[in-house]
Amino acid sequence: MTSSPKPIWIALIQSNMIKHWTKAATIFSGTYITLALLAPILMSAGLHKPGHLLYRIYSAVCHQDAYKSWLFSTTSLTSTPAILPSLEASLPNSVMPCVECSAFFGTQEIGWKTALCHRCTAIYVGVFGASLIYHHLKSKCVRIPNLTTYIYLAIGILPIIIDTVVLTDSTNIFTEFKLRHAHIISTLTGGLFGTMSIWYSYPQIEKYCQKHTDKLYQQGLHHR
């Protein structure tokens, strides 16, 4: 009896899906950060229902504090649409306690916050950027070296730990500097974490996928 050719086609389909996993990851991460940045644009355009839906979705992964998020402003304060560091950039200190919560999205007068805070925005921008570069290099058959765990910990994770634990609890000269440049520090540490996480994990995932692809191919040949 002639064996069915179905197993080899299944193996080929699975192999192709695994082969193009970086493309899928890049598209997903790009869509993810784009929608987060689209939320304040929708609100500014008067499309509040889809804007609120995006805020609700991203609230599951981010605190969304208004004073720690980028602000998309189209007010008379700026002649063109602008991205401001946070609501602190447009409101006096006396008003800040009213908006220091995740439930405040903004207003048409002062602008609308992004659906992700400074650090989360930088993390996912870093993830998308690194994914895009990694996929391009992979498509060009460029050998991408593995990132060591020590480098990942030192560059990707340690800066966030210092920012969120050491500097937050400190009472030294760094406190004033951190308060004045909080959005810059959060952006830098988040960007490093997102980028390094991709360069640390993707080569390992690719190595596993290659082994699995070879296994599927061998199984397909065996059932021919």
N-to-C span: 12 Å
Order the strands across the largest sheet as they lie in space: 2-1-4-3
Number of E strands: 4
Estimated share of beta-strand residues:
5-15%
Main beta-sheet strand count, sense and barrel state: 4 strands, antiparallel
**Alpha-beta content class:** alpha+beta
Low-confidence stretches: 1-6, 76-80
- How many domains comprise the coordinates? 1
Helix percent reads 55-70%
General form: globular
Q: Figure out the total of helices.
A: 7
What is the alpha-carbon Rg in Å? 23 Å
Q: List the helices and strands in order.
A: HHHEEEEHHHH
Mean pLDDT: 79
Please summarize what this structure is.
This protein is α+β, with helices and mostly antiparallel strands. The protein is built from 7 helices and 4 strands, in the order αααββββαααα. It has helices at 6-19, 21-44, 48-58, 118-139, 149-169, 174-180, 182-222, and strands spanning 69-73, 82-84, 106-107, 111-117.
Question: How would you characterize the overall build of this protein?
Answer:
- By secondary structure, this protein is α+β, with helices and mostly antiparallel strands.
- The chain has 7 helices and 4 strands; from the N terminus they run αααββββαααα.
- Helices cover 62% and strands 8% of the residues.
- A 4-stranded antiparallel β-sheet has the order 2-1-4-3.
- β3 and β4 form a beta hairpin.
